[in-house]
Amino acid sequence: MANQTTQLYQQHNIEEYFIEKEPFYLEVADEIDIFEAAYHQRVPVLLKGPTGSGKTRFVEYMSWRLNQARKRDGRADQMSPLVTVACHEDLTASDLVGRYLLEPEGTRWIDGPLTRAVKHGGICYLDEVVEARKDTTVLIHPLSDHRRLLHIEKIGEVLESHPNFLLVISYNPGYQSALKDLKHSTRQRFIAIEFDFPPRDLEGPIIQHESGVDITKAQQLALLGEKVRNLIGQGLQEGVSTRLLIYAGKLIEHGIAPRRACEVAIVWGLTDDHETQASVMEIVTSIFP
Amino acid sequence: MTTEHDSVIEELKKHPSAVIAAYEAVRDEVTEALGPVPALRWAQQGVRIAAQGPRAWEAATEYFKASPQVVQTIGFTQFERWAESGMELTAEAPVIAASFFRASPRVLPTLAPRHISGWASLGRGLSRGTWKSSSLAARFFDVSDDLVQQVNFHELQLFVSLVQTLASRSYDLAAEALVLGQRVLPAVSEREELISLAKVLAETSWREVRGSFEAATRVGNSVDRRLRPRYFALSERLARQGLGNVSAFMVESAHSLGQLPQELQTMVLERAEDLADSSAEAVSAFLRTAPSVLDRISPAQLDTWFGRGLEFLHDNPDAGIAYFRLESARAEALLDQLSSSIELEKVHGLLRMYANALAGSEVELQEANDITHRNIGWVSVEFATTDGKSVFLPPNVDLHESKSENFAWLKVVTTHQVGHLEFKSFDFDFHAPSAGFNDYREGVAEGLGATPGTTEVASFFDLFPVRAMAADLFSTTESARIDHRITSQYRGLAPSYRRVQSDALAARGPVEMLPAQQALMETLVRLSLGQTTDVHVPSRYTEQAMQLAGLLRSVRNHEATSEDSAEAALRMYYTLSQVPNEFIPLDDWEVLDLTNAEFEDPTLEEIVARLRAEAEESEEETPGDEYESPDDVDYRGDFKPEMVQLLAQMRGQAEPGDDDGSESAQGISQAELEQALRDSTEIDFADDAEVTTVAANMMKEMGADAPQNPAGSGYNQIPHVDEEGGPLEALEPRSYAYDEWDFRANDYRPRWCIVQERIAVSGETAFYNETMHAYAGLIEQIKRQFESVRPEMYRKVKRLPEGEDVDLDAGIEALIDLRNNMTPDERIYWRRNKDERDVAVVFLLDMSASTAEAVEESSRDSDWNAPGDPVAYTAWLRARRGETARRPYKRIIDVEKESMVLLMNALETIGDRYGVYGFSGFGRENVEFYVIKEVEELFSDRVKRRMDKVAPLHATRMGPAIRHATTKLANVDAKTKFMFVISDGRPQDRGYSREGVEKEYAVQDTRMALMEARNLDITPFCLTVDRNGHDYLRTMTGDLNYEVLPDIMELPRRLPQLYKKVTL
Q1: Which residue of A59, B15, B41, B71 pairs with B19 in a disulfide if CB–CB is 3.0 to 4.6 A?
Q2: pLDDT tier at A133, thresholds 50, 70, 90
Q3: Do B353 and A93 touch (CB under 8 A)?
Q4: Which CA distances in Å does B90 have to B24, B84, B124, B617?
Q5: pLDDT-based confidence at A191, cuts 50/70/90?
Q6: Each residue of B804-857: pLDDT tens digit?
Q7: Which residues in B lie closer than 8 A to residue A223 (C-beta atoms)?
Q8: What pLDDT is recorded for position B664?
Q9: Which residues in A lie closer than 8 A to residue B831 (C-beta atoms)?
Q10: Overall average pLDDT of the A138-156 stretch
Q11: Cβ separation of B353 and A289 shorter than 8 Å?
Q12: Cβ pair A216, A205 in contact under 8 A
């Protein structure tokens, strides 16, 4: 009986999750080569750029690409999982390393995501790393230099990284206050790849591919993106992300009128200030009939 | 007969000889006129008059003197009645009768005989038997002649009864009123109404009577004749209802009615009458603002607007009055909603962002008159334009019926101007290649041996003998290119854009009325506006028209640049300059379809040859009229590429380091600039002096871009601005407009106050350092208190469901529970809570004049703050003596400053961000806001110096200062924000009240400002050293924090304590 329920979701252990389908990624410059080189030399990578500019997608793509190469070379047993941790203000070192859990007969240690990635040779991607508490730097530093070690104080162990392990962190230099800047001692352990929103003629095809709208509409959305991004610092903190443009495209593809789709996907999402909303809406009505 | 005559003489002899003399002088004349018998009766009547009393002979004298003329005017029967009236008056008082007789020769010709006795009794009615009353009555007769000439008897009666009323209060006033009536009444047509009004006013105030008489003449000049009776009736009604200042009301309302045409006057007056039952003040307000309201909305919409106001008035009279005064945000909002016109001011922020987004660079948006005021070559107020950095738009758009259409127009205009920036009209480079043409420009320049001009655009225009025509061709072509780029890129805007274009087309005059060259230019303009079919062209120039159309078509694509426009214009010029500018008979025109026109490219040699030939032709040889530019296209505004490049070049010059070394960026002298301006066809100069002025203005503008800092000139310059009027605009740099709360109306008065922000004047650092010395002991104490705060910043939080590690106590408890088979508490972790202190605070110091008050000596004498430590004590004592030597007494402001210094010092230890500002001001137009230290500014000697010069200034208008500080604080990114207002008393300022009486107003506005701050998550705290402060402070701060210091000298110690208490 129970076996007949169809399972609509897939469950993986963190270290057993591999990306199977090729993520769509359009190279803007030479970032793919750089990343591959860095990976082969096990040089940690820092991705900088505003939200929705494709940092996460890039890491996914690279993870997939590296694993494809292993498959081709017949090293399928050496596949490297992708472990993504979205950092937040209350993320502490124990959240990354692991902690004791209470059980009826005592306590049990469980590994955190970083420990698992180190053990299984995954790419550990710490998204928005500056958001995390400062104590995480204690972990990041020995992992990101020649030592490649993870200290687990609580159980008194030191872990040597699996050869395939690589630390990738990202941060958004745009909206952090001076308090939340990345420390220089941390910065200088990574090579940095800068991300920005793709230029209009590249963003159009991306929107077209991701949302399925026709190329005219996709280009109009890209134009809208370009124009709205001109407002950064003059009413907007952040420009509209490619992600939001794609969402708008998806709504349009599903039959929502373009102006309305832009309103809900872009204008309202972007800001709460009424005047800025009205201005962005005027750009929308100028572009879309 | 003789005996009788002698007896008359006898009788008269009893009186002074003047009587007989008067009698003798006229006797013959009168006898002749009347005949002997009546003449005797006449003489006897004189005798009787003279016999009336001690001074009656004077009356008799006048009687005789007046008689000959009176006899000429009226018949004997009436004459006798007249004499009888005089007789009665003599009985009342001879002086009255004398005046009566004296006035009669002038009055009687215009007075109906039947009113003679009535007239006399009017005068008698004024007499009360006293000396003053008699002279008033006499005065009445003196002024009667002017009155009866214009005023009918009924009106005269009314007027006299008014005078009587006044006389019951004061005879002097009554006499004045007579003179006034003599002057005013003849000039006014609605005398009855005016007198009736004046009578009501007379009950309360003579000043008003006089005022209303004076105002009445103005009413006559401005209010429609048919409406005047109603107008006076309305005024009377208001006066009865107790409107205070009726004469002012009349002056103002007559003035504003005068601005309206008759039918609107009727309408407005009717509405005003509707209001009269509810509130006299509202009527006055409504009449005053009606013209400006009708400027913005149609008469039909006025009903809606008025109706809403009436509702407010019924709910809350104060709100209604403020509404009709337009001193209410709601009134403005509704007006705005109803009005179809678009005011740039209202959509300024929105369009600015829109323009910035499109242009991709920072574009300022300003009203068109901003650039004309600068007098740097732009003159038209209605036209949109750009100087390459800013876009200038008409301040008001009211071309269409609906708001949305007007906005669409403005948006099109904005997009077109921004389009010049987005699609780089002004980046034109003479040497840069075009996208779609064989480039001839350099070749032509070489062929003609032309030298480079001041700007790239000038270099191009310099190639042509008729510069104006070249400029017109280029700007039309370039505009067409911009229009094309906009409509193809902004598909959503395209429909509005086309509508504006077709409106512009429809507004153009017939092309057949122009000489051929201009007709073809006009055709080009029309083509550029999208007309391609049905084009009227002279039959003999169809090929030329095709050529122009083809060239224009070639710039309408995505690749074309401003260089393409120039290449096209060059070829167009070649074609057009060969057409004689002559009129073409109406029969010689034909209609063409130029939709798919193509052009034939002339060779470089042909063009050079043509230009050279044209340059050599003298004026006389050229057939036809001189070339004139086509009519402007209003949505395209003023396109001045040459001027923009010139300005840009001068700007580059003003910023050294930005110099790219190109030949033209090497600097322009005034002489060169003047030459460039003279060459340019973009400006029409009346004379050479104007060129110099404009050039000088341009130089000035580009040289000194930064606004002058007015603070250096000292504190005591108060510009006086009139208190009257409505909302204000913040025009100067660093001035800000804020609303003010009117608690009676329960609404904001929009943009009521102007806050002028200035950097405080700098003094010496000595004050700061001395204070530090003087309070050395206290400072140590405060420092210790504040430092003890630091460790509190990191707290270990226990019993959490998640955390860094297991909380031992909680863990053991949980395990015990588990062993006992009980459900354990899951919260067994602890975590260090990063409790970072993130505080921003502003201090507002009261710099009002009252802070100059000396602090009481008694409190100074006590050793209230003497430090216990002996060393510190000696230092303190020494410092105290030093101060006493400097200024014999200490002022409240000094204590304020000292306390602030101590606190600043403490804040530097704790690391909170803080700003210190002082405020004062004079009137709502001039709320002074002095920056001593900005929140983000670092503490430095500069701040110390500014602290020194904090001094008592003018009044205390707290509301706007608090609002401005709130704005500043709201822009600071901090978790916790505080605002400390330190003052010495109640907020007060000129006009910081309603009708100048309600002190409540200021307190309520301040309270509202504090509430606004709180709504923005700023915790306000009021600290006052006014001992009477308690009462109003309670209202002012509501349930907010406040403290009253009974002793000012407590402040230096108390302020840091309070700060700690409030913020920690």
Answers
A1: B15
A2: confident
A3: no
A4: 21, 10, 10, 101
A5: very high
A6: 778 888 888 888 888 888 888 888 888 776 666 677 888 888 887 777 777 654
A7: 489
A8: 40
A9: 92
A10: 87
A11: no
A12: no
A287 has a chain B CB within 8 A of its CB: yes
Which among B349, B494, B805 is the nearest to A94, CB-wise? B805
Q: Which residue has the higher pLDDT, B985 or A44?
A: A44
**What percentage of residues in chain B have a pLDDT greater than 90?**
5
Give the residue-averaged pLDDT of B995-1013: 74
Query: What residue in A sits closest to B497 (Cα-Cα)?
Result: A286
DSSP symbols for A96-136: HHEEEEEETTEEEEEE-HHHHHHHHTPEEEEETGGGS-GGG
For chains A and B, what is the number of CB pairs under 8 angstroms? 85
Over the stretch B893-924, which tens digit does the pLDDT of each residue have? 888 888 888 888 777 777 778 888 888 877 77
Return all residues near B997 (Cβ < 8 A) that are at least 6 apart: none
Q: What letters, b where the CB count within 10 A reaches 16 and e where it falls short, cover B9-19?
A: eebbeebeeeb
Best interface-test mutation with B: which of A95, A279, A281, A288 has the largest number of B CBs within 10 A? A279
* Spatial separation of the C-alpha atoms in residues B85 and B662, rounded to whole Å: 105
| Whole-angstrom distance, CA of residue B485 vs CA of residue B424 | 11
Residues 6+ away with beta carbon under 8 Å from B900: B843, B845, B916, B947, B982, B1055
Q: Is A281 on the interface with B (CB under 8 A)?
A: no
Burial class (CB in 10 A: 0-12, 13-18, 19+), B491: middle
CA distance readout (Å), B307 to A15, B275, B312, B615, B663: 73, 10, 9, 70, 67
Cβ-contact B26, B67 below 8 angstroms:
yes
Is B835 within 8 Å of chain A by CB? no
d(CA A180, CA B433): 49
Residues of chain A with Cβ-Cβ distance to B495 below 8 Å are 289
* B771 Cα distance to chain centroid: 45
Nearest to B794 by CA among B747, B755, B765, B834: B834
Q: Which residue stretches of B866-975 are H helix? A: 870-886, 892-910, 941-948, 958-970
| CA–CA distance, B767 with B779 (Å, rounded to integer) | 16
Say if residue B950's pLDDT is above 50.
yes
DSSP classification of residue B587:
G
**Partner A contacted by B492 (CB < 8 A):** yes
ipTM score of complex:
0.82
Rounded to the nearest angstrom, the minimum Cα separation between B425 and chain A is 19
Residue B791: the pLDDT is 46
Say if strands B829-834 and B805-806 run parallel, antiparallel, or are unpaired. antiparallel
Q: A230 to chain B, minimum CA–CA distance in Å? A: 5
Residue B357 has its nearest CB partner, among A104, A107, A283, at: A283
Q: Which two tokens stand for residue B238?
A: 């208001």
Q: C-alpha angle B175/B180/B183, rounded to 5°?
A: 135
Mutation choice for A interface testing from B354, B421, B838 by most A CBs within 10 A: B354
Query: Which chain B residues are within 8 Å of A228, Cβ to Cβ?
Result: 357
Q: Which two tokens stand for residue B861?
A: 């004498």
For residue B995, pLDDT over 60 is answered with no
Per-residue model confidence (pLDDT) at position B368 = 75
| Location of structure tokens 């002097």 | B172
Length, in residues, of chain A: 289
Amino acid at B785: Q
For residue range B506-526, list pLDDT tens digits in order.
Answer: 888 888 888 888 889 999 999
Q: State the pLDDT confidence band at B706, using cuts at 50, 70 and 90.
A: very low
Strands, DSSP E only, in B580-734?
589-592
Q: What pLDDT was estimated at residue B858?
A: 41
Inter-chain touch B805–A259, beta carbons under 8 Å: no
